Amino acid sequence: MANPTDPGYDREAVRAVLDRARTEGRTSLTAPEGKALADAYGLPVPGEALARDADEAVALAVELGLPVVAKIVSPDILHKTEAGGVEVGLTSPQEVKAAYQRIVANARAYDPDARIDGVQLQQQIGAGLEVLVGATTDPTFGKIVVFGLGGVLVEVLKDVAFRLAPVTRADALSQIGGIKAAEVLDGVRGGAAVDRDRLADLLVRLSDLVTDFPEIAEADLNPVFATADDAIAADLRFVLDFAPAQRPKQFDRDEILGAMNRIFTPRSIAIIGASNETGKIGNSVIRNIVDGGYAGEVYPINPKSDEVYGRTAYKSIGDVPGDVDVAVFAVPAKFVAATLEEAGRKGVAGAILIPSGFAETGEQELQDEVLAVARRHNVRILGPNIYGYYYTPQKLSATFCTPYDVAGGTALTSQSGGIGMAILGYSRSTSTGVSAIVGVGNKADIDEDDLLTFFGQDDNTNAIAMHLEDLKDGRAFVEAAREVVPRKPVIVLKAGRTSAGARAAGSHTGALAGDDKVYDDILRQAGVVRAPGLNELLEFGRALPVLPAPTGENVVIITGAGGSGVLLSDAVIDNGMSLYEIPPDLDEAFRAFIPPFGAAGNPVDITGGEPPSTYEKTIRLGLEDPRIHALILGYWHTIVTPPMVFAELVADVVAQARAAGIDKPVVASLSGDTEVEAASAHLFQHGVVAYPYTTEKPVQVLGAKYRWARAAGLL
Amino acid sequence: MANPTDPGYDREAVRAVLDRARTEGRTSLTAPEGKALADAYGLPVPGEALARDADEAVALAVELGLPVVAKIVSPDILHKTEAGGVEVGLTSPQEVKAAYQRIVANARAYDPDARIDGVQLQQQIGAGLEVLVGATTDPTFGKIVVFGLGGVLVEVLKDVAFRLAPVTRADALSQIGGIKAAEVLDGVRGGAAVDRDRLADLLVRLSDLVTDFPEIAEADLNPVFATADDAIAADLRFVLDFAPAQRPKQFDRDEILGAMNRIFTPRSIAIIGASNETGKIGNSVIRNIVDGGYAGEVYPINPKSDEVYGRTAYKSIGDVPGDVDVAVFAVPAKFVAATLEEAGRKGVAGAILIPSGFAETGEQELQDEVLAVARRHNVRILGPNIYGYYYTPQKLSATFCTPYDVAGGTALTSQSGGIGMAILGYSRSTSTGVSAIVGVGNKADIDEDDLLTFFGQDDNTNAIAMHLEDLKDGRAFVEAAREVVPRKPVIVLKAGRTSAGARAAGSHTGALAGDDKVYDDILRQAGVVRAPGLNELLEFGRALPVLPAPTGENVVIITGAGGSGVLLSDAVIDNGMSLYEIPPDLDEAFRAFIPPFGAAGNPVDITGGEPPSTYEKTIRLGLEDPRIHALILGYWHTIVTPPMVFAELVADVVAQARAAGIDKPVVASLSGDTEVEAASAHLFQHGVVAYPYTTEKPVQVLGAKYRWARAAGLL
C-alpha cells in the first residue's frame, strides 16, 4: 500500500494505461504512456505546452520556466529538425517569440500543405546534478528502489543505494545520504546543494507507484536532473510483468508462535527411525536427546524393535499412547512422506527432517511431496537435510551430533551443516552461552523469519546469529527482523557476497544469486548487524549478549601500551565509531592519575610501567563520568601489573559500577605472554569482552554493538 | 637522478628560474616561470604563439591545432575582456581571421593610443578526460607523484594513487591503472580510451623534474586533459622550498651488515647494570641470556658486586678482559651516556638501550646526547625504550621478558613494547617458529631498514613481519624492502592508519597526500605485504614461511561442506585471487571421485558424507594436475571422516606430492566440533596452513602469500 501521506495519486489513469498494455500483450510502455504514469503519481518531468501563436508561446515559456525548447507540431511533418522545426536553448521571451515565428515560417516553406497545430514548448533541462532513480523487482525482496549519482564515473564505481519499497520519506533520505559520494549532493567547489527533500519525494512517489501496481516490474528515471530547488526526470522507462513470481505461503504471528512453541518446548518427542545400532543416525539422535537431559516424553518409533535405548518403542507414531509435539525423522528420504503422513494424523506440530536426498540432490519433487503432506496436516517442517536442533533451556539436543549444554542467551542458526558444526565446536571451545542452535537446511518450510519471530519473543534468547545463503522471502525476513531488532541484536552472515561466492551458492542449494549490495542495504535498513565472515558471526553471537548497550557515542580508550592505543584508535574509526574529544576538566581528572609523560586526551595513555591502582583509578573514572559511554582497554603485560591482576581488578571495578547502576560496555585488548589468555577468559566471564593478541577484535565487537544500538533506536 | 631515458631536459633553464625565485625570496613561481619549467621538461601545455597579422594568425592557428583562443597583446590594455580583446572557440581559419580583425579593431576603439603587439593564439583545450597529475614532498618518503581523475566527484571520493619518485614508465602505468575508477580511462559509453602512455610519460617527466630539483616542494598539473592521443596540462602550479628537511644519516650495506652481524651473532655480551636482585631489569636480562642458552661470553657490569648470577662481574665494561660485541644497558636513562662512552671505548658494535626516559617522555636532548656518543664511537644503538631482542639461532634472549626458544623462519619487530609482548605471547601460544623478535622503540639509531638489510640476507630468516608507527626514512625503507622482497616476504602492520594529522599543504596534491593512502601505495610499490591489523601481522608472520610460493594464479577449492565452499569463494575474491575455471577434462576427472549430486566446477563440492578416500583422491588430483596452482580445503566434521583422520590423510598426500617434487600451497578451513583444533594444529605442523571455525583466515593467508609472490616477480 502507498504511504499514509498519499498525495492524491490518480490510480485510475495508471490502471487504464496498464490494462491497455496487458490487453495488447506489451511489457513496455510508450513515451506518452510513461508520461501518463509520471503525471498520475506526480513524478516530475519536463513541463510542456502547445502554443498556437507567438504571444501564447512567450506566455507559456515564462510559465514553464526558461530556457525552453520549441518544436513544430504538425501531423504532416515527421522530420522536425529537417524542416527547421526545432530550436533549443531559448532563454528570453524575445528569443521565444522569434523562434516561434521562424519555426512556423520554416515549416511552411518545407511543406506548404502541412497542417500546423502550433509549436510545442518544453522546459529545457540538463542543468544540475545528474542522478538515477529507479525501482525494480528483486527475486528475494520484491519491489526495491534504487538511488545513485548518474554519469559515467558513477557507472564505473557503481555507487548506488537500495531500499525496500515502499519507502518512507526518512528511508528515502537515508538512502540518498547512503551513497559513498553523498558529499557531492551538498555542492562542491562552491556549487549549490541539491534539494534532498525533492529527491526523497521522488523516491517515495516512485516506490508508491510500483507498490500499488506490482505489474510494474522495473522503472528507470535516468537521468534525473537535481538542482537546488527541483528534481526533474529527463527520461522515463517502464517494464511490465503481468505474471510476477508468487511469495511463499505466509503464516501469521500466532500461527508461527503456536507451532514454534510446541517445537522448542515440546512435552514429547517421537524419533522416527530410532535405532539401537551404534553409528546409525537414529541411534545418535535418541542417545543425544536422552543423554542431553531432555525431561519430556521420548518415544522411539521402530517397526522392528520393542525397546530402543531403554525406552518402549512403537511400530508407528500412531501407536504412541500420548500426544506428540515433535517428530524427528531419521529414516531415508524415500520413507519420509509416508511416515510424515502418520505423524500428521497424530497431530505433531513439527517434523524435524534430518535426512538428505531432497532438493539438494535434485529431488525437488520428493521435497514438494513431503511439503504437501505437511501442509495438509498443518505440520511445520524443519529441514530437510539438517543436523537437527538444540534448545538448551529444555536441555534438548535433537541432533545426530553431540549434546551441548552451556545455556546462555545466543540463538544460532545455519543453512549449512558444515557451518552448524563450526558453530557447535566454536561454542564449546569458547564456552559460549547458547539458547539454541538450529539447522535450516533446504528450508522447505520453516525459515529464518519463523525462527526470528520465535527467538524475538523468547526470554531465553537475547541475541540471534544466523548464517544464510539465501532468503526464501526477503520481505518476510525484513518484517520479522524489524520487529525483533528494537529488543535484541540480529546478526547475519550472508554467504555468497561476491559473484564467485554467489555462484557457489547457486550450485549448493539452488540459491538465487543477486547483487550483494541489495542484501547489504536492505539488511541494514532492517537493522540487522551483518557479519563479514564466519568468525565474526560466531564472535558477535558470543560477545554481543555479554555487553550492555551503549547509551551514547562517546568512546574512550584507556591503555597501558601506547602502541596498542594507536591500533585501537585505528580500529575505532574502521568500525564506525569516533573517539570522544575529552573536555578539559575530564582530561585534568585523568592526568591526576597518570605519570606526567603519559598522554591524556584520547587514548588515555597511562604508560607501561604503572601499578594496578593506575588502571583501577582511570577505569573507574571512565565508568563513573556520565559523559563517557563506552570504554576500550589496552593492557600491557608487566611484572608490576600481571595479567590476572589486571583482569580481576577490571572485573571488580566493572562489577562495582554495575552494582551502582552504571552499566557501560567495556571491551579489552590484552598484549602479553600466554597468561593473557586466561586473563581474557576471566574478563569475558565477568562481562568484559576481552581478547589476547588482537587490537581489532574487541573494537569490532563494540562496533557491532553500536550498530545494533543505533538500529534499535537506543542512541 | 632522472630516468636513464632522459629525454633531453633543459636543466639550465629550470636552474635559472629557480635561482631567480630564490634570490627574490619567493616560494612560488609566476605563470610564465611555470611554463618555462614545463617547456624545459617537456610537460605538455597548451601551445601558444603571437600573430602579428590576420594571415599569420590563420597559419599559426592551424599549426597549433583548432580550436584556438585569441587574445589581444598590448602592454596598455590590462582588462582584455572589457576591451573586446578575447575570443574563444575559434574552430575554422575563417573564424580565426575574422576574430583577429575584430579584436584589433575593438582594441583600437577601446584605446586609440594603445600599443598593439598582435594577437596571442592559444590552443583551446577542455575536451577529453580531466585528470590530475602532481608531485609533492612527503615528510616520510620525500618526493612522491600522484595521479587521479579530476572533477568534482573524484575530489569527493579521493580516488588517487601515489608512487615514490623517480618513477619508471612501468611504475607510472601501474599507478595510472591503480585508481579505483581506472575503467573510465578505457572509455565508457562508447567513448575513446585515453592514451595511458602519454599520461605515463607526463608522470615520468614530472617525477624527473622534482627529483632533479629537490627545492620544488610541490607541483600541480590540474586539470590535465587526456584524450585518445594527447595529455595537456591546462594549469600548472609550483611551490618551492629552499630549506628542505634533511634525511637521517645513511649507512652503506657493508657498514650495516658489519654491525648487525656482531649484534645478532655476538661472541660476547656485557650487561651494564646486571644485578642479583630479583625483580630488577638488570637481573631479568642476565637470567634470560644465561638461562636462554646463549653460548658466548657473558660479562655482568656492576660496580658494587664481584659476581652476578654466577658470573664474574666487572666495575666497568673497560675492565672486561676480552672483546665485547654487544652491551645491553639496564641502568637508568641518566647513566646511559657515561656508560655508553665507556662501551664505545671498549669497541662494542651494538648498544641495546632498554631504559625508558628519553624522547618518549620528552627527553629528546638526552637521547640526542646518547646518539652523539654512539656516533663518535661508531656504536649502533637499538632503542632506547625497548624490551630488548631475541635471536633464536644463537639462543639469545637479551630482554627483561621471558626466554623464547622455538626456532624457525620468522623475524618479528615492533616499535611498541606492548605489541612486542603480544608477539611473544602469540608466538608461544601457537608454537610459531621464530628467528628473531626485536624491539626498536624510539629508533634513535637502528630502524626497520637496518633490520631489513640484516634479515634479508640472514639464512635463518625466511619472512619478516614488522609493526611500525612511523618510518624515520621511508625512502631507505623502500630501498631495503625492494632488495629483500624478491627473496622473502616482508609484512608490515602500519599503525596510525586513520589518525593521519592535518598537514600544512600549499597545493591540492599536498592535501591529498596527507593520508594513509601514501603509505599504502608506496609500501605496495616496494612489494611489502601490508597486514590490516595486529592479528594478521602475527598470523601472516607465522603462516607465510610455512607455505610454498604459488607458481600461478589458478586457485581451486575442494570442500566437503557446500556451505564452507560458498564462504571460501567469497574469501577468495575478497583477497584478490580468482577461482580457476576448471576445464572439462579436469572437471570430468574430479566428477569420477564424487557422488553424482556433488558439484564439480570450482568449488569442487565432494558433499558431506564422504569417506576419507574421497578427500584423498580429489586432493591428490588437485596437487598432481599442473594446471592447478593452489588448493583451499573445506573440511566438514563427520563420523565417516573424523577430524584427525582428515588431517593425517591431507598431511600424507601433501608430503607424498612434495616428495615427488610438487610443492603447491595448501590451506584448510576445518568446521566441526572441538577436535578440529588438534587437527588444524597437526596440519599446520605438516606444512598445511589450517584453522578451525573460520573460512576467512586460511584464504587471507593464501592471499597474502600471493601478494608477496606477485611482488617478488614469481608469477
Rounded radius of gyration of chain A (Å): 32 Å
- The pLDDT mean of chain A sits at 92
- Envelope shape of chain A: flat
Largest interface (CB < 8 Å): A-B, 89 and 92 residues
Number-wise, the strands of chain A total 29
Largest sheet of chain A, order of strands side by side?
19-18-21-20-22-23-24
Strand count, sense and closure of the main sheet of chain A?
A: 7 strands, mixed
- Helices and strands of chain A: which structural class? alpha/beta
Task: Give the end-to-end Cα distance of chain A, rounded to a whole number of Å.
Answer: 30 Å
Q: With helices defined by DSSP (H or I, 4 residues minimum), what is the helix count of chain A?
A: 23
Helix content range of the residues of chain A, please?
Answer: 25-40%
**Percentage of residues in strands of chain A:** 15-25%
Instruction: Give me the oligomer status.
Output: homodimer
Low-confidence residue ranges of chain A: 506-514
